[in-house]
Design brief:
Pnp Oxidase, Chain A, 9-stranded antiparallel sheet, 5-stranded mixed sheet, 13 helices, 28% helix, globular, binds flavin mononucleotide
């Protein structure tokens, strides 16, 4: 049986039962019911996967399509998705991600009759995204959105690109797509130059390895259908689309697929939307999509990302930690761990621990990390006795080890995408212990005493 979302939900239920919650009462996702429930859980420091079994659709009617959210909100579930030990979900998971990124497993094509996503096919006026339980996330959001990945195909090479980009519901058969990623923009522009509509599909539910794999830092020419296979650890099954037949293949084991066309010369207003940064993205004009078909399973489950929260941040951090580790370590050989913390939305801040041998090593590691990801605004380098996954320790190192005159370095006028007060400036903080002057030792209890004292023998 091919891997799909329901296979994963069963796995969570069986292997991480405390991580799985079902809400059976009727919820109206377009009236903030889902995000309010998730926000209450977040305030209690709880990040379970939540299946909303009885949501309303965008017409306000009861729908048989449940919504699942928070799938990626804990690293342990990301590990489970990649068939990786859940107790190895810090750096080892990131290094496994970086390893999978270098492999490919080509997809396979199957017939329509075998494809679960073809159980229900809606075309024409019936293909109205309002039949789906679209989620309105934040107070000032322009409209409800669909937050999962878009897929487009390069018209010259035929490679497929899978990228997270949300769509705003704009009325029957019409959506605004918030496409501002380099790869998808390149494809959109190629069709625009030809004055042709660009095929696009949105995948509203699949096995989480499909989504994690779509974030691999692969070059433009790589076919994302093949890179996703390595994360699924099996070939992705594809099937012909309703709109373009075999000229555009779609994931056969998806829950719901919206097919549509980006129209050259037509635009739609998108945003505001509560973004990954936890601020609203300002309103702008982006691509218009005419919906041509919706296909789905009979008992489809729609997936959503709780924007600007833990799952969204893990999706930013996991794909970068391993590659930054490998890049900096292959150059200098002194890196112990890399982490992109939630406080930096899994994108803005990078914590690196190194085995420092000489003064100045930290700054070199920081500069190398800045080159690896354009999302970083602050790189903090600490000694290898600091656990970069424990933010309290990192902040302690900053507050006790940093001489701001020499240990904070600004790199000015470097392009960035996120809107923060730092603007186009970046910062490296060397929070390692200085080696060129006398400095107190960090205290510790002798290791022999820690080994000798077994807590349960002393405290019942
Ligand atoms: C949950 C999630 C939602 C995202 N939403 C959008 C979006 O709406 N628009 C967008 O342009 N990028 C969005 N992104 C960022 C892109 O998916 C990301 O930059 C991607 O890695 C770029 O892919 P590319 O290298 O193929 O261009 C989102 C990312 C995540 C993880």
């Amino acid at each position: 049986m091919a891997k799909d979302l329901r296979y994963f939900l069963e796995k969570v239920k069986n292997e991480l039962p405390d991580d799985y919650i079902e809400v059976t009462r009727s919820v109206d996702p377009n009236n903030f019911d889902i995000t309010a429930i998730l926000e209450h859980l977040t305030k209690q420091n709880k990040f379970p996967l939540v299946l909303f079994k009885n949501p309303k659709n965008l017409k306000g009617e009861d729908t048989e399509i449940p919504v699942v959210s928070n799938v990626f909100a804990k690293r342990e579930r990301c590990a489970l998705a990649l068939d990786w030990p859940v107790d190895q979900s810090n750096l080892p998971l990131s290094l496994e991600y970086a390893r999978l990124e270098r492999e490919i497993i080509p997809p396979v094509e199957i017939g329509k009759e075998q494809a679960p996503v073809k159980e229900i096919i809606l075309r024409g006026p019936e293909a109205d995204p309002a039949i789906l339980p679209g989620v309105r996330h934040y107070e000032m959001d322009l409209s409800p959105v669909f937050t999962m990945t878009l897929i487009m195909k390069d018209p010259d090479t035929g490679i497929y690109d899978i990228t997270f980009a949300k769509t705003f519901y704009k009325g029957s058969q019409r959506m605004g797509a918030s496409i501002h990623t380099p790869h998808l923009e390149r494809i959109v522009n190629k069709y625009k130059e030809r004055n042709e509509p660009a095929p696009v599909v949105q995948v509203l539910g699949h096995h989480p390895a499909f989504y994690l794999g779509s974030l691999a830092l692969s070059p433009y020419d790589a076919d994302d259908y093949a890179s996703v296979g390595s994360f699924l650890r099996e070939p992705l099954r594809l099937v012909e689309s309703e709109t373009w037949g075999k000229d555009f293949l779609v994931p056969a084991d998806a829950e719901i697929i919206i097919e549509g066309e980006v129209l050259p010369g037509e635009k739609e207003i998108v945003d505001p939307f509560g973004e990954v940064t936890r601020h609203y993205q300002a309103q702008c004009i982006r691509q218009a999509v005419n919906v041509t078909a919706i296909t789905r399973r009979k008992n489809a489950i729609m997936q959503d990302i709780f924007s600007g929260h833990e799952g969204h941040w893990n999706l930013g951090a996991l794909p970068k930690e391993g590659s930054v580790f490998n890049a900096v370590n292959s150059r200098y050989g002194n890196v112990k761990a890399v982490h992109l913390p939630h406080s930096g939305i899994g994108r803005l801040a990078c914590y690196i621990s190194i085995d420092k041998k000489r003064e100045g090593d930290a700054k070199i590691a920081g500069l190398a990390a800045l080159l690896e990801s354009w999302t970083f605004q602050v790189v903090v380098v600490v000694d290898d006795d600091i656990d970069v996954f424990n933010e309290k320790e990192v902040v302690w190192a900053i507050l006790t080890m940093v001489d701001p005159k020499r240990d904070i370095t600004m790199v000015e006028n470097v392009h960035t995408v996120f809107t923060t007060a730092m603007g186009h400036n970046k910062m490296i903080i060397d929070a390692t212990k200085p080696l060129d002057r006398a400095f107190p030792e960090r205290f510790r209890i002798p290791e022999s005493a820690m080994q000798r004292i077994k807590l349960d023998e002393w405290i019942k």
